[in-house]
Amino acid sequence: MRTRLLKLSLNLRHGLIGLLLFTGLTAPFAWAQAPSPEALHSQFNALREKGTGQLAGRSIYLRSTESAERMQGEVHALIDEPFDRVRQELTQADRWCDVLILHINVKYCRGMRNAAGDELVSGVGRKFDQPLSEVYWVRFGFKVQADRNDHLLVELRAPSGPLATRDYRIVVEAVPHTGGQSLVRMTYSYGFGTAARWAMKTYLATLGRGKSGFSVVGRSDDGQPIRVEGVRGVVERNTLRYYLALQSHLQSHDAPGTAQLQQSLEGWFTATERYAEQLHEIERVDYVAMKLKEVKRQETVAPPPPG
To answer: Which of 94, 106, 171, 242 has the fewest CB atoms nearer than 10 Å to its CB?
Structure first.
């Protein structure tokens, strides 16, 4: 038992936390249902009116929830990209790998097609260079739930992961907004069991010590905000990382040829540095070099077979 616990702890130090932080959750083993476009506008207007979860004066609103067995993060944001472009990019499974690979923990992503439909095979690991033999592999089903000229809903779902984690989902909904903008909601969460809870506690007591999220949960004696920590802090940090990956990919669309990748990498790093207190992990030059290597690798190395 002691040996097993030590092994779990070492696995966590080698990047489990990146895998635990994948996706948006609804009812177990059921694809998300498509609400009306009006509902998304109403939710965003309510958040903007109250200022709930607003980040650094921007049109980005971040929230999180925690229950006994599930964690969830959610971003509502206005993005300076036309809805037609958002729709064109996000309804294509292979474009999602261009998004996911920007996240510092994602080491590999390739779109595949099987009898069940489109799938994204993703390898998740540490926040620095890592061989594929050490990553955790997750296979996401990809489904477009709504694709209309006024509403988009796309979902990525993986039923299980290591250490009893389960029900990984990324759900992105978008509608057109005034002035050529798009209104986007990204929901991300996972379910977990006893082993995953233990692993997260180990992370928070070691590598994650002293890190916070964004939600203000109180005030210090001198009036400074006290921000959420623990598992909710972890979820909030990674929810924002994934949203900023989506934003950076869309904003690099007009760059010519291979410059698009470079621009999206630079854009993601610049965007995360606006929240350096929560999100900074490595220096820009190291991040870009690592990601260029990972992109080249995923283009030439096949993913492992299912199972």
So the answer is: 94
